[in-house]
Amino acid sequence: MSILAATGLAKEARIAKRVGLKPAIGGGSSELLTKRLDEAADGATAIVSFGIAGALAPLLRTGDAVIGTHVVAGNEHYTCDAAWSQILRSKLAYSRPAIIAGVDEVVSHIGAKRALFRDSGAHAVDMESHIAARFAKQHSLPFVVLRIISDGYQRTLPPAALEPLKPNGKPRLLAVLKSVAGDPEQIPELIQTGQEAGKAFRALLRCSRLIGFGLGCPYLG
After folding, report:
1. How far is the C-alpha of 24 from the C-alpha of 131, rounded, in Å?
2. Domains along the chain?
3. What pTM was estimated for this model as a whole?
4. Which residues contact 79 (CB under 8 A, 6 or more apart)?
């Protein structure tokens, strides 16, 4: 029996392991995440979309914890498990319930964030929740979302932060350096992005520890 954690980044996966989750890393690829979840399906009891996210709603700030109520992706609509979500909310009294938009491409520009907020009604966005939700529906598994806000709704990410990840969820450092060399004016924004991500990762670890082993999943038997 295992609880799967759908993640995009290696750092997210490391935190997931510390609370007994079995991470599947997508590295920013919907296809790869789907494949890795399918490979881990045997023995899975439940699944959580776990990691950092971008804010779409103005009320959300870097470091805020959001617990999904629903996941939307285009015309798709998924409801998160109510009982497990309530456990998460009870452990994280300061968390916010949120509709999560799942996307296949990074939503990096403030204009795109505003459009997605307007069109979907979602409060936050990531690249894994819709994949996890589809997997949960396919395998009849309970599903929740625990995400920490990294970039705020008014933030446009710099080009270096958008370089594709390695399949293991780690950054391609050479590509990042080349991007910076070609456009050094992005350095202040890149530093800010790194600081925001660091704050989000620390909050993710803190929240995970507060919730405890298995993220309080009530379906472990």
Report:
1. 11
2. 2-216 (3.40.50.1580)
3. 0.95
4. 69, 70
